[in-house]
Design a protein that fits this description.
Shape: globular
CATH superfamily of the largest domain: ATP-grasp fold, B domain
Strand content: 15-25%
Distance between the termini: 16 Å
Largest sheet: 7 strands, antiparallel
Radius of gyration: 22 Å
CATH architecture of the largest domain: 2-Layer Sandwich
Length: 389
């Protein structure tokens, strides 16, 4: 590749990073900036500026990780060299992971396609009731169905919870949760789930982070295993597992158990959930769980469940299931799996080609050395093309 094209690539990536800066600050790191602004034991301004400049120069992008992992606090135990071991989100999502999934990213990003692929591979997952796409309803085979068909599907569902999800979405955003109340399903605002919910536009008002594409899927909730109910019963708590697949061989790199809290029905850390590291060999939980704001707890704040030394009986089956499923999607090197363990065994909630590694690095520490990453190698790759990036 010519020197001109290399330079063009570099300029293109730098402009991309700059354009993402505002979004990252306003969305992904909004809570981290707010935590920083409230900090009463921050380092001197000059020291923080020097450290951030060093990280930005090293990684080639704005060091949002400085705020995410509280490097600005006087109590931070890390040197600048140790801080460099924490990989920034922009680097992972826009340089590193794209090289892993290349043309296969849509398998994870499109929930309808994900459902079809898992179904074809006979992988357990939540049942799909129907889809809604711009004033039309469709069944699991993507055939148009009538209003009467849809209402019948809702009324005859034996699930206790139904989830309305945007076709394209992540981090638990844009999801509507409807619980069985008598003969119908209603959300926390007592809004009834039926065809009118979609047809009169109620879904665009009641579901936060709604999908601009206008395409939603409706899935039945799962009944989780009693072992996980004992930790927190109000949400389906999921294993967030990071896998790597090379030459058809899969291995598990990291795992945390994500737990709901505060009576919420989802376990996302960004929505108030907590997460605790799982020992990959024994299935034992680590001593403390963490929250999105970097706080920790040794027992669940709602149930009082003590994490330390608790060995999960469900882990060995979950591990084998995840490895077998990862091999089915071996075209993608790195995947982040959300695995529920139901009364009938493990089930895939979703999998991601750009998994959130912030929670993983909260639990495991920085992973640069473990992945043998040199940022300079990734700001230009000879086998990249501008189209794929």
């Amino acid at each position: 590749m010519s020197a001109f094209r290399k330079r063009l690539y570099y300029i293109w990536k730098k402009l991309s990073e700059k354009s993402s800066h505002k979004k990252f600050k306003a969305v992904f790191f909004k809570n981290d900036f707010e935590r920083f602004q409230k900090c009463t034991n921050a380092k001197p301004a000059g020291q923080m500026k020097r450290e951030m400049n060093a990280l930005q120069k090293y990684w080639g992008c704005y060091p949002f990780q400085y705020y995410r992992f509280d490097f600005y606090k006087q109590t931070c135990p890390y040197t600048v060299e140790e801080m460099k071991n924490y990989i920034p989100l922009y680097f992972l999502h826009h340089l590193y992971f794209p090289y892993s999934y290349k043309d296969y990213g849509v398998l994870c990003e499109d929930k309808l396609l994900t459902y079809a692929m898992l179904k074809a591979y006979e992988v357990p997952q939540p049942a799909l009731l129907f889809c809604y796409d711009h004033n039309e309803f469709y069944d699991v085979a993507n055939n148009a169905i009538t209003v009467a068909d849809v209402n019948a599907l809702i009324n005859t569902s034996i699930a206790t919870t139904l989830f309305v999800k945007p076709r394209f979405g992540s981090e638990g955003k844009g999801i509507g949760i409807f619980n069985k109340q008598g003969s119908c399903f209603t959300d926390e605002h007592h809004t009834k789930l039926d065809t009118a919910f979609f047809e009169n536009g109620t879904h665009t008002q009641s579901i936060k982070g709604r999908d601009k594409s206008g395409f939603y899927i409706v899935q039945e909730g799962l009944s989780q295993h009693e072992e996980l109910n004992a930790i927190y019963p109000h949400a389906v708590n999921t294993f967030r597992i990071i896998t790597e697949c090379v030459n058809g061989e899969a291995k598990i790199l990291y795992c945390v158990l994500r737990l709901g809290s505060g009576g919420r029905q989802i376990d996302n850390a960004s929505a108030g959930g907590i997460f605790v590291r799982v020992d990959l060999e024994t299935g034992a939980l680590y001593e403390s769980a963490q929250a999105f704001d970097q706080s920790t707890c040794s027992k669940h704040p709602d149930t009082g469940f003590v994490f330390k030394d608790m060995k999960l009986e469900t882990w060995e089956v979950t591990k084998a299931f995840t490895l077998a499923t990862a091999r089915k999607f071996r075209e993608i090197r790195y995947l982040g799996w959300d695995i529920a363990f139901t009364k009938n065994g493990p089930s895939v909630i979703e999998f991601n080609n750009k998994p959130d590694m912030a929670g993983i690095q909260d639990s495991y520490g920085g992973i640069r050395d473990a992945w043998n990453i040199n940022p300079k190698d990734w700001w230009y790759q000879s086998n990249y093309t501008l189209k794929n990036l």
